[in-house]
Amino acid sequence: MRLPAIVLRGAGDPDQLRLEDVDVAEPGPGEVQIRHTAIGVNFHDVYVRSGLYHTLALPGIPGIEAAGVVTATGPGATRFRPGDRVAYITRQYGCYATARTIDEDALIPLPDGISDELAATHLLKGLTAYALLHEVYAVKPRDRVLVHAAAGGVGALLCQWAAAKGACVIGTVGGLEKADFALRHGCSHAILYRDEDFVARVNEITAGEGVQAAYDSVGKDTFFGSLACLAPTGHLANFGQSSGAVPPFEVSLLFKKSNSLSRMSVFVQLRHADHRREVAQQLFKAFAEGVLKPGPMQKFALAAAAQAHRAMESRARMGSLLLVP
């Protein structure tokens, strides 16, 4: 069976994402075939397409997050049946496609109250936010936390969930519209990082005490400032590098305030299927109960993947992007 997919043959600008017909394999032992209904677009995809990450063998089909419907099962695949709604994240890529075959252990069942669009745009972000807030550093009531890119996909979830856990959330954003969004999604304070020194503002807000945790997906431009914002024994969780890679530094910089540092991979943190499904159910419950509210979603046809990437790279963007086959 041949169906349309987005194929990347060489790293470069968004126009490298081209629609082609590809073969969809029949499911083998322990595998299922899925017809995609919604495909998430993430910054990871941009890094792969641009050549910043060399983790997809080319030519290849990008994409690490999607939702859909099981259409066939292979021998020994017993957890799912045709017609089941599922979502997944994967390091094996291949999501920018009409359909695919994948190991059933990768799949997470979708409850009735969670739409395919919500799952495809918030599963990776939500699992990341859960792991950061509950496992990497377990946020406690009255903690002070700093969240960079507070109006972004993961950032908005971090702010809402940390606030629900009783933390005082300080977010950095790039403009007034994003500041308003952040304040409506869990932030007690929103810092305009282009107009203000965020380290000085955090110091002012916390009366010089600093934050117990800083969640930094920006990387090079904010890393050392985030470190300066930490309270004694505070933790810096770096989980992205939208401004570039963090340069090498002396680990003894952590000594002065007995700070700690992590660089989490959600795929490693949630590498066991049962754990991943359990965390996903906690995420879906948080959405169902209104603890988390999804941001706006912008839809693109699968064939318009290049346009979606341009939107992803726009600093004016807020909310999630998805492709619809």
Relevant terms:
325 residues; alpha/beta; Quinone Oxidoreductase, Chain A, domain 1; 2 domains; six-stranded parallel beta sheet; 28% helix; 27% strand; globular
Description of the molecule:
There is one protein chain. This protein is of the alpha/beta class and 325 residues long. β11, α6 and β12 (230-238) form a beta-alpha-beta unit. It folds into 2 domains: 2-123 and 269-324, Quinone Oxidoreductase, Chain A, domain 1; 141-263, Rossmann fold (3-Layer(aba) Sandwich). The longest helix has 21 residues, at 116-136. The strands form 3 sheets. Strands 3, 4, 5, 6, 7, 14 and 15 form a 7-stranded mixed beta sheet that branches. Strands 10-9-8-11-12-13 form a 6-stranded parallel beta sheet, with helices on both faces. A two-stranded antiparallel sheet has the order 1-2. The radius of gyration is 20 Å and the shape is globular. The chain contains 9 helices and 15 strands. The protein starts with a strand and ends with a strand. The mean pLDDT is 96.
Quaternary: single chain
How would a textbook summarize the main sheet?
7 strands, mixed
Number of domains: 2
Tell me the name of the CATH homologous superfamily of the largest domain. Medium-chain alcohol dehydrogenases, catalytic domain
Helix count, per DSSP? 9
Total beta strands: 15
Helix/strand-derived category reads: alpha/beta
Mean pLDDT: 96
The proportion of strand residues reads 25-35%
Helix content: 25-40%
The rough form would be described as globular
Order of helices and strands: EEEHEEEEHEHEHEHEHEEHHEHE
Radius of gyration from CA coordinates: 20 Å
- At the fold tier of CATH, the topology name of the largest domain is Quinone Oxidoreductase, Chain A, domain 1
CATH architecture of the largest domain: Alpha-Beta Complex
The CATH class assignment of the largest domain is Alpha Beta
Low-confidence stretches: none
- Measured between the Cα atoms of the first and last residue, the distance is 16 Å
